[in-house]
Amino acid sequence: MTLSVIIPALDAANVLPATLAALAGAEEIIVADGGSTDATAAVAAQCGAIVLAAPRGRGPQLAAGAQRASGDWLLFLHADTVLALSWRAEALAFCRDPANLRRAGVFRFALDDDSAQARRLEALVRWRTRAMGLPYGDQGLLLSRAFYDSLGGFRPLPLMEDVDMVRRIGRRAIVALSAPAATSAERWRRDGWRLRSLRNLACLALYFAGAPPRFIQRIYG
Q1: What global pTM score does this model have?
Q2: CATH of 3-187 given 3.50.50.60, 3.40.630.30, 3.90.550.10, 3.30.470.30
C-alpha cells in the first residue's frame, strides 16, 4: 500500500514548509502549483516534493495532482494545513481496513489560533461534519485511488470543489478521523471572525442554490 499526498498551492511559500515538514514519511508528495509568483515551487522542491505546474484553481490543481500521483491511496491537503504527528498512523490504519475501500477519511478541523472564536468555529465544523456529512477541504480528504476514480475525480471548479466531491462521496461514506488538521486562521483574523464565517456560509448557500462557481469565487474573496 502506498500513499500519495496532493497539495494545491498558489503563492504559498510562507506556509508550505510547516505543511510539508508534518508529512515526513509520506511515500509521495505532489505540490500542484497554480502559477505562483513567489518561491512556492522552489520551497516545495527543497522540501522533497514533486512540483507540478497546473491550471489555476483548486479543482484543476487537485485533478492534475491526482493524475500524476502513483499511490494506491490519495490524501488531498491544503497548503496551509498542518497535520498532527498522529496523522500517519491513523491514516495507515484507515487505509488497511477493507471496510474503507469505498469511504473517505477527513481529519479534525483545528485553527492555529488561541481565541475563543476559534474554539467556537471548530465546534461548529465538528457538528457540520458529523450531522451533515459536509467537511471542507481544509480537513484533508483521504480515499483510495480506485474510489476516487469511480467518483470521476475532482471537477475543474475554481471553488467549492471540496463540497462537490464530498456530496458525490455521500454522507454515509465520510469517516471522521481524530488527528487534528491545523489550518491557518489568517483569513478570519484579517476579515473578522463573524464576517468571514458569514461569507463562507453565503458561498455554501449560493452553491446549493446553483450559482456559478466563478460568481461564488468573487464573493469568497
Answers
A1: 0.94
A2: 3.90.550.10
